[in-house]
Design a protein that fits this description.
Strand content: 5-15%
Helix content: 40-55%
Distance between the termini: 163 Å
Largest sheet: 8 strands, mixed
Number of helices: 13
Strand order of the largest sheet: 3-2-4-1-5-6-7-8
Shape: elongated
Length: about 400
């Protein structure tokens, strides 16, 4: 019995020893890693000294509350901005003799007509073929069929009576006949000064692309150069920036511009322009209308409405139709339709320096029975000139 107990005790001791060895080996395997080295810590910036280490405060001047100016609270302080500089007012070129001064520019492109006619008339024998060439030259220049036939007939008679033909005689003969054809006795003054009232009212009409708004601005310069005060009515409310463009033209010569909202009623703008022109005592009101296509019946009717609304103030003194000289005979179709709507009283021919078709002056006058009153000879601000038949013909045939 004692042996059994002893064996059990030995077994328990042996098992205990083995268990201790196993646990010890496991603890050795699971030891934590060594602690990392302590990081370098940058010392924080020194704090201000306090207590005994503080610096002695410096003496600074101080103001009492009685010495400080406090706002009284009556009104906020407003910082005035420097006033914007008004645009410089330009002095337009005098209109007297302007076409004569621009004759060289006109003759550069128009000499083809005059020189062609003089060359043909200078031939030793003027047979039927030559006279047909003369007719073709005139027709190519857009003089028109009937005016061409009349001119050729008169030339044939005078050349036959003249007999010998020196270059100077031919030039004099052609000059006289062309001036007669253009019309020496037509009243070409732009009516802007009615006797019984102020202001004179001028409407400017035309299709898109003829330079109508630019022409209105240039006409304002012509009138200002002649000593008249001008109000501009920006009744072209359908074209983007048309009112801005017209206002810029007005500001350059000191003309006031009346404008309305974009896509607004053009008749209302025109009415207000005349009203303000009256209140300001202006000499002339120029109304720039939308560049309507003559094929749009509804838009043409609206143009007639603009005129009727304006005439609630006073009669319209001038209705100027702006035509592009380069359009030739198509311009006559435009002129005919516009004249049926608003009773055209005068023609403005633009871009006349860029075409050899100067005969459109004759054709459009015959078509409408109204004179060409102004012609545009370039892109310059003062390149709009009153039409003078003699100066125009001299540019056609050259010196």
């Amino acid at each position: 019995m004692d042996i059994v107990i002893l064996a059990v005790v030995i077994a328990v001791v042996v098992l205990g020893a083995l268990g201790g060895l196993i646990v010890g080996s496991r603890r050795k395997k699971q030891l934590p890693p060594p602690p990392p080295a302590a990081p370098d810590i940058t010392a924080p910036p020194a704090e201000p000294h306090v207590g005994d280490e503080a610096e002695t405060p410096r003496e600074e001047p101080r103001r009492t509350i009685e010495e400080v100016d406090l706002p009284d609270g009556s009104a906020p302080v407003v910082v005035e901005e420097p006033p914007a500089e008004a645009p410089a007012i330009e002095i337009p070129e005098p209109t007297a003799g302007r076409l004569v001064r621009l004759r060289t520019r006109l003759s550069r492109s128009q000499n083809a007509l005059g020189k062609g006619l003089l060359t043909l008339l200078s031939r030793e024998h003027l047979d039927e073929d030559t006279w047909e060439e003369i007719e073709d030259t005139l027709l190519t220049a857009d003089v028109g069929v009937q005016p061409t036939q009349e001119l050729v007939e008169r030339l044939r008679e005078r050349v036959k009576v003249l007999g010998t033909r020196t270059p100077e005689e031919l030039r004099t003969l052609l000059r006289e006949e062309l001036i007669t054809l253009v019309g020496r006795d037509m009243d070409r003054a732009v009516k802007t000064e009615p006797e019984d009232r102020k202001p004179g009212i001028v409407m400017v009409v035309g299709v898109n692309g003829t330079g109508k708004t630019t022409t209105t601005g240039k006409l304002a310069r012509v009138l200002v150069a002649d000593g008249q005060s001008v109000v501009l009515g920006a009744a072209d409310t359908f074209r983007a920036a048309a009112a801005d463009q017209l206002q810029t033209w007005g500001e350059r010569v000191g003309a006031h511009t009346v404008r309305g909202p974009e896509a607004g009623d053009p008749a209302s703008v025109a009415f207000d322009a005349v009203k303000e022109g009256k209140e300001m005592g202006a000499n002339v009101v120029l109304i720039d209308t939308a560049g309507r296509l003559h094929t749009k019946t509804g838009l043409m009717d609206e143009l007639g409405k603009v005129k009727r609304v304006v005439e609630k103030h006073a009669p319209v003194d001038e209705v100027l139709l702006v035509l592009d000289a380069t359009t030739g005979q198509n311009g006559l179709v435009q002129a005919r339709v516009f004249s049926e709507v608003v009773d055209i009283t005068g023609i403005v021919l633009t871009k006349l320096d860029g075409t050899a078709k100067g005969g459109i002056v004759v054709a459009v006058q015959r078509e409408l029975g109204v004179p060409v009153k102004l012609i545009g000879l370039g892109e310059g601000a003062d390149d709009l000139a009153p039409f003078e038949p003699e100066a125009f013909v001299d540019a056609l045939i050259g010196e």
